[in-house]
Structure formats: structure tokens, C-alpha cells
């Protein structure tokens, strides 16, 4: 009996070991830095851009190469009329031919094609950088949104608990004659309105969690750790603006347009070709070998090459104008963001240092007055509703300040900021 029991125990241990190996590890809550790292690693949009860049890089080796050679097979000078019609064995001018030919584009064109391939790689890498910056910023904003949504919910629950104690005690106050029956209804009404706001905050937490899932890939993400202190340094942000991924992409786009212009200009130079063939005749006659060179004649540049060159030059100028427009747009966006951040910070400080303390003081005073019989339950309910508004307003403004800081630093800062 002991042997089967031991076998069962060993089997159970084996199954537990296999389960521990095969089951995925349960992901813990994400800190701010971990969320950004996971977004940068797992974001499908970044992977797509990176794969596109890899594809462009793989195609680089084919740029500027000679075209494939051509094999030619044929019969030349086959008689179809006259006394020797359809009798090629009697005609010493009929032969079977096999040959190869090779087109050789001019060297400037091949160099331009290689330059165009390098420019494509630069654009693809720059697009990957732009997407990585977008994902990083959006993941940061989603994490901040979830963190403050939870704080709002916790703060409102605290106010609700305090108000509920008064509402539960209100029937006793009515029975003792300290409060009127209508005041009980006012307390319940205020409690219901705060519960409505709580439902909104629960929904906000769900939306924020869904947004963080979008950027990190976590099915049910939680957050851990403190909210970072985003110290905005305007001078440093302005100095690093030139390295913004959008401007890097604009520069790469200019490089590609210039490469297209060089390809068009190379079309004005002639291309070459070589031909080599072997002609096999009747054994009574000798065989031939032929060789030749072809040279392209770009004689109609005014109607063929020059219009294309003008079009590519216009594209290059358009790319430069687009880069200037992007710089102006980013500069305006940065200055607008700095101005809004200063305004939001002042409003948050006012809510934190003035509005919320006043609301807390009002609750304290109304509670004391209620205990002394000089305030009603309605006054208590109004004071708690005002306190909830003040606390949520403070958290809203703090969240806005944090989101402003994260956006400014992660969007406009350099890679090491």
C-alpha cells in the first residue's frame, strides 16, 4: 500500500512542478518607470515601425546593383522565300544564336540609388523614434490618470464615510427634537449626490485602467510607487527642441527628397550596355562570335529629364518648408504648454493652500455648531459637499499639473531627461 501512495505523491509533485513552469508569472503593479519601459518594449505600433525599418535596411544591399543579365536565344537569317526557302542547311547565312546582354546604368545613377536607400533607412528610423516618443508620453499620461483617479475615489470615500455618520444619526436627532424631519431628507439627498459622483470616479478609474492597458499590454494593470515630481525647466526644454523626433523625421525627409533629386539628375547621363553572342551554323560553314556595346542617348532632356528634375527639386523645397513649419509648430506648442503649466500650477497651489483648508475649516465649524445646536443637518451636508468639491478640485488640478509636466518633459525633452 505504501508504494502506490508514494507513486501518487511523486506524480502530484511532478504535476505541481510542471504547473509552476508552464503557468505565466502574475504581473505585479507597475511603477511609473516600469510602465514606460513596458510600453516601449511591447507597444505594437513601435514594433510595426521597427519592422518597417528592418525591411528598409534589408533592401539597402540591392540598391545601386547592376540589373540582372539577359539571355537571348534565336535563329537568324532563316530563308522563307527564293530557291533556298525553308532549306537552311543549304544557306551559309542561317545560324542559331545564343547570347547574353548586360545593362550598365551610369555610375552617378547607381550612387544616387544607394543614397536613396540610405535616406529611406533614415526616414524609417526617424518614424520609429517619433512613434516611440508618442507611446512613451501616452503611457505616462495613462499611468498618471489612473493614479489620480484612484486618489480621487479614496478621497471621496473618506468624505462619504464622514457624512454617512451624520445621516445615520439624524433619526435620533429628529426624535429628540434637535432636527426637523426635512433635514433628514436633505442629508440623504446630499449623500446620494456624492454617491453619484463616486460612480463617475469608479468609471474614471476603469477608463484610465483601459487606457493603460492599451499602452502597456497589461490585462488588468495596477500602479505602485509614488507619482514622480516633474520639474519643468523651460530653458533646458527650449535647448533640446532641435533634437525632437519630429524634427529629426523632417530632416530625414529632406534627405530623402534630396536623394530623389540626385536620382533624377543622374538620368541626364547616358547608360551603357554590353552584348555577347555565339552563332552556330551548319558544320560546313564556320561559326561566329559577336560582341557589342550600347550607349543611351539622352537627347531630349528638355522634355524628359528636366521636368523630372524640376519636380524633384520642388519636392525638396517642399520638405524644407515642411521642416520649418514643424519647428514653428513645436515651438508654439512648447511655449503654450509652458504657459498653461504655470497657470495650472498657480491654480493648484491656490486650491491646495486656500480652497481646501477653507472647506475643511467650514466642516469643522459646522460640526461644532451642530453639536451646540446652532447648525442644522442641512448645513452639515452642504459643508461636506463643499469639502468634496474642494478636495476633488485640488486633485484635479494636481493631476493636470503632473500631466503637464510629464508631457512637457517627455515630449520636448532630450532622451536623457
Automatic annotation (TrEMBL):
Keyword presence, Membrane: yes
Record carries keyword Transport: yes
Residues of the signal peptide: 1-27
Record Gene3D superfamilies: Outer membrane efflux proteins (OEP) (1.20.1600.10)
Subcellular location: Cell outer membrane
Pfam families, alphabetized: OEP (PF02321)
Alphabetized UniProt keyword annotations: Cell outer membrane, Membrane, Signal, Transmembrane, Transmembrane beta strand, Transport
Family classification: Belongs to the outer membrane factor (OMF) (TC 1.B.17) family.
Name of the protein described by the UniProt record: Transporter
The species this protein was found in: Sphingomonas glacialis
Amino acid at each position: 500500500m505504501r508504494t502506490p501512495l508514494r507513486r501518487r505523491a511523486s506524480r502530484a509533485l511532478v504535476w505541481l512542478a510542471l504547473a509552476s513552469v508552464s503557468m505565466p508569472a502574475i504581473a505585479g503593479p507597475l511603477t511609473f518607470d516600469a510602465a514606460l519601459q513596458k510600453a516601449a518594449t511591447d507597444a505594437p505600433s513601435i514594433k510595426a515601425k521597427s519592422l518597417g525599418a528592418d525591411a528598409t535596411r534589408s533592401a539597402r544591399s540591392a540598391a545601386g546593383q547592376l540589373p540582372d543579365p539577359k539571355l537571348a536565344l534565336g535563329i537568324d537569317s532563316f530563308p522563307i522565300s527564293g530557291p533556298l526557302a525553308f532549306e537552311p542547311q543549304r544557306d551559309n547565312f542561317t545560324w542559331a544564336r545564343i547570347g547574353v546582354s548586360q545593362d550598365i546604368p551610369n555610375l552617378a545613377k547607381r550612387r544616387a540609388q544607394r543614397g536613396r536607400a540610405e535616406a529611406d533607412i533614415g526616414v524609417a528610423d526617424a518614424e520609429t523614434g517619433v512613434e516611440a516618443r508618442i507611446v512613451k508620453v501616452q503611457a505616462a499620461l495613462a499611468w498618471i490618470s489612473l493614479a489620480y483617479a484612484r486618489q480621487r475615489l479614496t478621497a471621496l470615500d473618506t468624505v462619504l464615510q464622514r457624512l454617512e455618520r451624520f445621516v445615520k444619526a439624524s433619526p435620533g436627532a429628529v426624535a429628540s427634537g434637535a432636527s426637523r424631519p426635512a433635514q433628514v431628507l436633505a442629508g440623504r439627498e446630499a449623500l446620494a449626490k456624492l454617491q453619484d459622483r463616486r460612480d463617475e470616479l469608479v468609471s474614471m478609474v476603469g477608463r484610465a485602467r483601459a487606457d493603460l492597458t492599451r499602452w502597456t499590454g497589461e490585462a488588468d494593470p495596477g500602479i505602485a510607487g509614488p507619482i514622480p515630481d516633474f520639474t519643468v525647466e523651460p530653458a533646458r526644454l527650449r535647448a533640446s527642441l532641435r533634437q525632437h523626433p519630429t524634427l529629426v523625421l523632417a530632416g530625414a525627409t529632406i534627405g530623402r527628397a534630396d536623394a530623389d533629386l540626385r536620382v533624377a539628375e543622374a538620368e541626364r547621363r547616358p547608360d551603357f550596355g554590353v552584348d555577347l553572342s555565339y552563332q552556330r551554323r551548319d558544320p560546313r560553314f564556320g561559326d561566329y562570335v559577336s560582341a557589342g556595346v550600347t550607349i543611351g542617348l539622352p537627347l531630349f532632356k528638355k522634355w524628359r529629364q528636366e521636368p523630372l528634375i524640376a519636380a524633384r527639386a520642388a519636392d525638396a523645397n517642399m520638405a524644407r518648408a515642411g521642416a520649418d513649419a514643424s519647428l514653428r509648430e513645436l515651438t508654439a506648442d512648447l511655449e503654450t504648454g509652458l504657459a498653461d503649466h504655470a497657470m495650472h500650477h498657480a491654480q493648484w497651489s491656490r486650491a491646495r493652500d486656500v480652497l481646501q483648508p477653507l472647506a475643511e475649516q467650514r466642516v469643522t465649524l459646522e460640526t461644532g455648531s451642530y453639536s451646540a445646536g446652532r447648525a442644522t443637518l442641512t448645513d452639515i451636508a452642504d459643508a461636506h459637499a463643499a469639502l468634496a468639491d474642494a478636495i476633488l478640485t485640488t486633485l484635479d488640478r494636481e493631476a493636470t499639473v503632473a500631466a503637464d509636466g510629464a508631457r512637457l518633459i517627455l515630449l520636448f525633452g532630450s532622451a536623457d531627461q
